[in-house]
Amino acid sequence: MKQRDIFIAFFRSSMLGYGGGPTTIPLVQKEVVERFKWMDNEEFGDILAIGNTLPGPINTKMAGYIGYRIGGIPGTINAILATILPTIILMIVLLTTLTAFKDLAWVQGMTRGVLPVVGVMLVVLTKDFLQSSVKGLRWATVALHVIMALFLIEFLHVHPAIIIASLLLFAFFKPVKKDTTIKKKGRSA
Amino acid sequence: MIYLHIFWVFFMTNLLGYGGGPATIPLIQKEVVDRYGWMTVQEFNEAFAMGNALPGPIATKMGGYIGFQEGGWLGAVLAVLATVTPSLILMITLMGILYKNRTSPRVKRMTAYVKPTIAVLLGVMAFQAFFDSYVQISVVHIIILAAGSYWLMEKRKVHPGLVVLSSLLYGAVLLS
Q1: Domain ranges of chain B
Q2: Which of A147, A159, B133, B171 is within CB 3.0–4.6 Å of A110 for a Cys-Cys bond?
Q3: Distance CA B120, CA A142 (A)
Q4: In this predicted complex, what is the ipTM?
Protein backbone atom coordinates (compact mmCIF):
# COMPACT_ATOMS: atom_id res chain seq x y z
CA MET A 1 0.00 0.00 0.00
CA LYS A 2 2.62 2.50 1.12
CA GLN A 3 4.95 1.65 -1.75
CA ARG A 4 2.04 1.92 -4.17
CA ASP A 5 1.23 5.41 -2.84
CA ILE A 6 4.87 6.45 -3.18
CA PHE A 7 4.89 5.28 -6.78
CA ILE A 8 1.62 7.06 -7.59
CA ALA A 9 2.73 10.32 -5.95
CA PHE A 10 6.01 10.57 -7.85
CA PHE A 11 4.78 9.12 -11.12
CA ARG A 12 1.94 11.64 -11.20
CA SER A 13 4.02 14.67 -10.27
CA SER A 14 6.71 13.78 -12.78
CA MET A 15 4.41 12.99 -15.70
CA LEU A 16 2.50 16.24 -15.17
CA GLY A 17 5.66 18.27 -14.70
CA TYR A 18 6.30 19.82 -18.07
CA GLY A 19 9.36 22.02 -18.15
CA GLY A 20 11.72 20.28 -15.72
CA GLY A 21 12.69 21.03 -12.12
CA PRO A 22 10.70 24.08 -11.03
CA THR A 23 7.50 22.72 -12.59
CA THR A 24 7.52 19.60 -10.47
CA ILE A 25 8.20 21.27 -7.11
CA PRO A 26 4.62 22.51 -6.55
CA LEU A 27 3.27 19.22 -7.89
CA VAL A 28 5.41 17.18 -5.48
CA GLN A 29 4.30 19.49 -2.65
CA LYS A 30 0.63 18.87 -3.53
CA GLU A 31 1.11 15.09 -3.43
CA VAL A 32 3.39 14.83 -0.42
CA VAL A 33 1.91 17.49 1.86
CA GLU A 34 -1.71 17.88 0.78
CA ARG A 35 -2.73 14.55 -0.73
CA PHE A 36 -0.82 11.89 1.23
CA LYS A 37 0.04 14.08 4.26
CA TRP A 38 3.44 12.46 4.74
CA MET A 39 4.90 15.71 6.10
CA ASP A 40 3.98 19.35 6.73
CA ASN A 41 5.03 22.41 4.76
CA GLU A 42 7.80 23.15 7.29
CA GLU A 43 9.59 19.91 6.58
CA PHE A 44 8.96 20.22 2.86
CA GLY A 45 10.60 23.63 3.03
CA ASP A 46 13.65 22.14 4.78
CA ILE A 47 13.94 19.51 2.06
CA LEU A 48 13.75 22.20 -0.58
CA ALA A 49 16.37 24.28 1.24
CA ILE A 50 18.85 21.43 1.69
CA GLY A 51 18.11 20.20 -1.82
CA ASN A 52 18.94 23.64 -3.16
CA THR A 53 22.31 23.76 -1.43
CA LEU A 54 23.36 20.40 -2.83
CA PRO A 55 24.38 19.85 -6.45
CA GLY A 56 22.50 17.70 -8.94
CA PRO A 57 18.89 17.57 -10.14
CA ILE A 58 16.36 18.71 -7.54
CA ASN A 59 13.50 16.32 -8.37
CA THR A 60 15.44 13.14 -7.82
CA LYS A 61 16.92 14.46 -4.58
CA MET A 62 13.44 15.27 -3.28
CA ALA A 63 11.92 12.04 -4.56
CA GLY A 64 14.80 9.95 -3.21
CA TYR A 65 14.73 11.51 0.24
CA ILE A 66 10.95 11.56 0.65
CA GLY A 67 10.79 7.97 -0.60
CA TYR A 68 13.42 7.07 2.00
CA ARG A 69 11.54 8.82 4.83
CA ILE A 70 8.29 7.07 3.96
CA GLY A 71 9.45 3.66 2.83
CA GLY A 72 13.16 3.13 3.54
CA ILE A 73 15.59 2.09 0.82
CA PRO A 74 12.86 0.40 -1.28
CA GLY A 75 10.93 3.66 -1.00
CA THR A 76 13.92 5.59 -2.38
CA ILE A 77 14.32 3.29 -5.35
CA ASN A 78 10.58 3.25 -5.94
CA ALA A 79 10.24 7.06 -5.83
CA ILE A 80 13.22 7.62 -8.12
CA LEU A 81 12.10 5.05 -10.67
CA ALA A 82 8.59 6.53 -10.67
CA THR A 83 10.11 9.97 -11.26
CA ILE A 84 12.55 9.19 -14.05
CA LEU A 85 11.84 5.87 -15.73
CA PRO A 86 8.64 6.64 -17.67
CA THR A 87 10.05 9.81 -19.21
CA ILE A 88 13.47 8.32 -20.03
CA ILE A 89 11.80 5.48 -21.89
CA LEU A 90 9.55 7.96 -23.73
CA MET A 91 12.62 10.01 -24.60
CA ILE A 92 14.61 7.07 -25.98
CA VAL A 93 11.67 5.65 -27.92
CA LEU A 94 10.60 8.95 -29.39
CA LEU A 95 14.09 10.18 -30.26
CA THR A 96 15.10 6.95 -31.93
CA THR A 97 11.86 6.60 -33.92
CA LEU A 98 10.14 9.93 -34.32
CA THR A 99 12.53 12.87 -34.42
CA ALA A 100 9.83 15.34 -35.41
CA PHE A 101 7.87 14.91 -32.15
CA LYS A 102 9.21 18.03 -30.49
CA ASP A 103 8.30 20.13 -33.54
CA LEU A 104 4.65 19.10 -33.42
CA ALA A 105 2.58 22.21 -32.80
CA TRP A 106 0.33 20.63 -30.21
CA VAL A 107 3.28 19.44 -28.13
CA GLN A 108 4.59 22.98 -27.97
CA GLY A 109 1.09 24.20 -27.20
CA MET A 110 0.94 21.86 -24.21
CA THR A 111 4.18 23.25 -22.81
CA ARG A 112 2.81 26.78 -23.21
CA GLY A 113 -0.55 25.93 -21.64
CA VAL A 114 0.89 24.53 -18.43
CA LEU A 115 3.27 27.40 -17.66
CA PRO A 116 0.74 29.90 -16.21
CA VAL A 117 -0.75 27.12 -14.08
CA VAL A 118 2.68 26.35 -12.65
CA GLY A 119 3.07 30.08 -12.07
CA VAL A 120 -0.12 30.11 -9.99
CA MET A 121 1.00 27.09 -7.97
CA LEU A 122 4.33 28.76 -7.23
CA VAL A 123 2.62 32.00 -6.17
CA VAL A 124 0.41 30.05 -3.75
CA LEU A 125 3.46 28.23 -2.34
CA THR A 126 5.32 31.54 -1.98
CA LYS A 127 2.37 32.95 -0.01
CA ASP A 128 2.29 29.83 2.24
CA PHE A 129 5.98 30.14 3.03
CA LEU A 130 5.75 33.87 3.77
CA GLN A 131 2.78 33.29 6.07
CA SER A 132 4.53 30.58 8.03
CA SER A 133 7.74 32.67 8.16
CA VAL A 134 5.84 35.38 10.01
CA LYS A 135 4.83 32.82 12.61
CA GLY A 136 8.45 31.94 13.44
CA LEU A 137 10.24 35.27 13.03
CA ARG A 138 9.30 38.90 13.57
CA TRP A 139 7.49 40.56 10.69
CA ALA A 140 10.29 43.07 10.15
CA THR A 141 12.91 40.31 10.19
CA VAL A 142 11.04 38.41 7.49
CA ALA A 143 10.80 41.57 5.38
CA LEU A 144 14.52 42.18 5.82
CA HIS A 145 15.34 38.59 4.84
CA VAL A 146 13.10 38.80 1.77
CA ILE A 147 14.59 42.09 0.58
CA MET A 148 18.16 40.89 1.20
CA ALA A 149 17.59 37.58 -0.57
CA LEU A 150 15.89 39.23 -3.52
CA PHE A 151 18.68 41.79 -3.82
CA LEU A 152 21.46 39.19 -3.57
CA ILE A 153 19.87 36.73 -6.00
CA GLU A 154 18.43 39.07 -8.60
CA PHE A 155 20.84 42.01 -8.62
CA LEU A 156 24.16 40.64 -7.40
CA HIS A 157 23.50 37.20 -8.94
CA VAL A 158 24.71 35.37 -5.87
CA HIS A 159 23.85 31.70 -6.17
CA PRO A 160 20.89 30.77 -3.90
CA ALA A 161 22.85 27.78 -2.62
CA ILE A 162 25.43 30.13 -1.10
CA ILE A 163 22.75 32.21 0.63
CA ILE A 164 20.94 29.17 2.01
CA ALA A 165 24.17 27.55 3.17
CA SER A 166 25.25 30.77 4.96
CA LEU A 167 21.85 31.07 6.64
CA LEU A 168 21.97 27.46 7.79
CA LEU A 169 25.51 27.81 9.15
CA PHE A 170 24.63 31.08 10.87
CA ALA A 171 21.53 29.58 12.47
CA PHE A 172 23.55 26.60 13.61
CA PHE A 173 26.54 28.40 15.10
CA LYS A 174 24.84 31.42 16.62
CA PRO A 175 24.74 30.82 20.38
CA VAL A 176 21.37 29.58 21.61
CA LYS A 177 19.81 31.78 24.27
CA LYS A 178 17.18 30.55 26.65
CA ASP A 179 13.55 30.54 25.39
CA THR A 180 12.12 32.50 22.44
CA THR A 181 15.30 31.83 20.50
CA ILE A 182 13.33 31.63 17.30
CA LYS A 183 11.74 35.02 17.94
CA LYS A 184 15.23 36.54 18.17
CA LYS A 185 16.33 38.71 15.30
CA GLY A 186 18.58 37.15 12.67
CA ARG A 187 20.46 39.51 10.47
CA SER A 188 22.54 37.32 8.23
CA ALA A 189 22.67 36.44 4.54
CA MET B 1 36.25 2.30 -21.51
CA ILE B 2 33.12 3.88 -22.95
CA TYR B 3 31.14 2.92 -19.84
CA LEU B 4 33.74 4.55 -17.63
CA HIS B 5 33.55 7.73 -19.69
CA ILE B 6 29.74 7.77 -19.59
CA PHE B 7 29.74 7.38 -15.82
CA TRP B 8 32.42 10.03 -15.37
CA VAL B 9 30.70 12.62 -17.57
CA PHE B 10 27.38 12.45 -15.73
CA PHE B 11 28.93 12.05 -12.29
CA MET B 12 31.06 15.16 -12.68
CA THR B 13 28.58 17.42 -14.47
CA ASN B 14 25.90 16.79 -11.87
CA LEU B 15 28.24 17.37 -8.93
CA LEU B 16 29.36 20.66 -10.47
CA GLY B 17 25.90 21.69 -11.59
CA TYR B 18 24.55 23.77 -8.74
CA GLY B 19 20.97 24.82 -9.27
CA GLY B 20 19.44 21.55 -10.36
CA GLY B 21 18.87 19.93 -13.74
CA PRO B 22 18.77 22.94 -16.07
CA ALA B 23 22.07 24.23 -14.65
CA THR B 24 23.87 21.06 -15.71
CA ILE B 25 22.83 21.22 -19.39
CA PRO B 26 25.66 23.51 -20.58
CA LEU B 27 28.18 21.40 -18.62
CA ILE B 28 26.88 18.19 -20.19
CA GLN B 29 27.01 19.76 -23.64
CA LYS B 30 30.63 20.76 -23.10
CA GLU B 31 31.64 17.21 -22.22
CA VAL B 32 29.47 15.35 -24.71
CA VAL B 33 30.03 17.61 -27.71
CA ASP B 34 33.40 19.31 -27.21
CA ARG B 35 35.38 16.81 -25.17
CA TYR B 36 34.19 13.35 -26.23
CA GLY B 37 32.56 14.21 -29.57
CA TRP B 38 29.68 11.79 -29.02
CA MET B 39 27.24 14.20 -30.63
CA THR B 40 27.26 17.35 -32.74
CA VAL B 41 25.85 20.58 -31.31
CA GLN B 42 22.86 20.09 -33.61
CA GLU B 43 22.14 16.59 -32.25
CA PHE B 44 22.58 17.78 -28.69
CA ASN B 45 20.13 20.62 -29.21
CA GLU B 46 17.64 18.21 -30.80
CA ALA B 47 17.86 15.95 -27.75
CA PHE B 48 17.51 18.94 -25.42
CA ALA B 49 14.47 20.24 -27.29
CA MET B 50 12.89 16.80 -27.16
CA GLY B 51 13.66 16.52 -23.46
CA ASN B 52 11.93 19.84 -22.88
CA ALA B 53 8.86 18.71 -24.79
CA LEU B 54 8.48 15.70 -22.50
CA PRO B 55 7.47 15.77 -18.83
CA GLY B 56 9.77 15.01 -15.89
CA PRO B 57 13.26 16.07 -14.82
CA ILE B 58 15.57 17.12 -17.65
CA ALA B 59 18.99 15.94 -16.37
CA THR B 60 17.98 12.29 -16.09
CA LYS B 61 16.30 12.33 -19.51
CA MET B 62 19.50 13.70 -21.08
CA GLY B 63 21.63 11.19 -19.16
CA GLY B 64 19.42 8.28 -20.07
CA TYR B 65 19.25 9.17 -23.74
CA ILE B 66 22.92 10.00 -24.26
CA GLY B 67 23.96 6.95 -22.23
CA PHE B 68 21.71 4.80 -24.42
CA GLN B 69 23.15 6.26 -27.62
CA GLU B 70 26.73 5.58 -26.58
CA GLY B 71 26.44 2.40 -24.54
CA GLY B 72 23.02 0.82 -25.02
CA TRP B 73 20.82 0.02 -22.03
CA LEU B 74 23.82 -0.48 -19.74
CA GLY B 75 25.05 2.95 -20.76
CA ALA B 76 21.66 4.45 -19.98
CA VAL B 77 21.56 2.84 -16.53
CA LEU B 78 25.11 3.99 -15.71
CA ALA B 79 24.44 7.55 -16.83
CA VAL B 80 21.28 7.77 -14.73
CA LEU B 81 22.99 6.27 -11.67
CA ALA B 82 25.86 8.75 -12.01
CA THR B 83 23.33 11.58 -12.28
CA VAL B 84 21.17 10.62 -9.33
CA THR B 85 23.17 8.75 -6.69
CA PRO B 86 25.90 11.11 -5.43
CA SER B 87 23.62 14.03 -4.59
CA LEU B 88 20.95 11.68 -3.24
CA ILE B 89 23.37 10.11 -0.74
CA LEU B 90 24.38 13.59 0.45
CA MET B 91 20.71 14.54 0.72
CA ILE B 92 19.69 11.50 2.76
CA THR B 93 22.67 11.94 5.09
CA LEU B 94 22.13 15.65 5.74
CA MET B 95 18.35 15.43 6.07
CA GLY B 96 18.77 12.42 8.33
CA ILE B 97 20.91 14.46 10.73
CA LEU B 98 18.43 17.34 10.68
CA TYR B 99 15.44 15.06 11.17
CA LYS B 100 17.03 13.26 14.09
CA ASN B 101 17.65 16.62 15.81
CA ARG B 102 14.43 18.29 14.75
CA THR B 103 13.48 19.22 18.32
CA SER B 104 16.77 21.00 19.01
CA PRO B 105 16.46 24.81 19.09
CA ARG B 106 19.33 25.15 16.61
CA VAL B 107 17.64 23.01 14.00
CA LYS B 108 14.32 24.78 14.57
CA ARG B 109 16.11 28.05 14.04
CA MET B 110 17.64 26.75 10.81
CA THR B 111 14.15 25.99 9.50
CA ALA B 112 12.90 29.42 10.53
CA TYR B 113 15.83 31.35 9.04
CA VAL B 114 15.76 29.61 5.70
CA LYS B 115 12.02 29.99 5.11
CA PRO B 116 11.91 33.60 3.84
CA THR B 117 14.65 32.78 1.32
CA ILE B 118 12.74 29.72 0.10
CA ALA B 119 9.73 32.01 -0.34
CA VAL B 120 11.87 34.37 -2.42
CA LEU B 121 13.15 31.50 -4.57
CA LEU B 122 9.60 30.26 -5.19
CA GLY B 123 8.46 33.79 -5.94
CA VAL B 124 11.28 34.27 -8.44
CA MET B 125 10.38 30.96 -10.08
CA ALA B 126 6.74 32.09 -10.29
CA PHE B 127 7.80 35.35 -11.90
CA GLN B 128 9.98 33.44 -14.37
CA ALA B 129 7.05 31.18 -15.31
CA PHE B 130 4.77 34.15 -15.99
CA PHE B 131 7.51 36.02 -17.83
CA ASP B 132 8.21 33.01 -20.08
CA SER B 133 4.48 32.73 -20.73
CA TYR B 134 4.29 36.43 -21.58
CA VAL B 135 7.01 35.99 -24.21
CA GLN B 136 5.25 32.99 -25.79
CA ILE B 137 1.49 33.55 -25.57
CA SER B 138 -0.98 36.42 -25.37
CA VAL B 139 -1.92 38.03 -22.07
CA VAL B 140 -5.55 36.96 -22.49
CA HIS B 141 -4.55 33.28 -22.49
CA ILE B 142 -2.32 33.81 -19.45
CA ILE B 143 -5.15 35.45 -17.53
CA ILE B 144 -7.65 32.71 -18.47
CA LEU B 145 -5.22 29.95 -17.48
CA ALA B 146 -3.98 31.63 -14.29
CA ALA B 147 -7.36 32.79 -13.01
CA GLY B 148 -9.07 29.57 -14.05
CA SER B 149 -6.49 27.33 -12.39
CA TYR B 150 -6.43 29.46 -9.23
CA TRP B 151 -10.20 29.24 -8.95
CA LEU B 152 -10.28 25.49 -9.61
CA MET B 153 -7.39 24.57 -7.29
CA GLU B 154 -7.82 27.01 -4.42
CA LYS B 155 -11.58 27.67 -4.34
CA ARG B 156 -13.08 24.49 -5.76
CA LYS B 157 -10.28 22.21 -4.45
CA VAL B 158 -10.04 20.29 -7.74
CA HIS B 159 -7.03 17.93 -7.83
CA PRO B 160 -4.05 19.82 -9.30
CA GLY B 161 -3.36 16.88 -11.63
CA LEU B 162 -6.72 17.40 -13.30
CA VAL B 163 -6.09 21.13 -13.57
CA VAL B 164 -2.67 20.53 -15.17
CA LEU B 165 -4.17 18.00 -17.58
CA SER B 166 -6.84 20.51 -18.60
CA SER B 167 -4.20 23.17 -19.18
CA LEU B 168 -2.21 20.73 -21.36
CA LEU B 169 -5.36 20.10 -23.40
CA TYR B 170 -6.10 23.84 -23.57
CA GLY B 171 -2.54 24.42 -24.82
CA ALA B 172 -2.65 21.59 -27.37
CA VAL B 173 -5.89 22.93 -28.87
CA LEU B 174 -5.67 26.71 -28.48
CA LEU B 175 -1.96 27.54 -28.20
CA SER B 176 -0.45 25.41 -30.97
Answers
A1: 2-100, 105-174
A2: B171
A3: 11
A4: 0.75
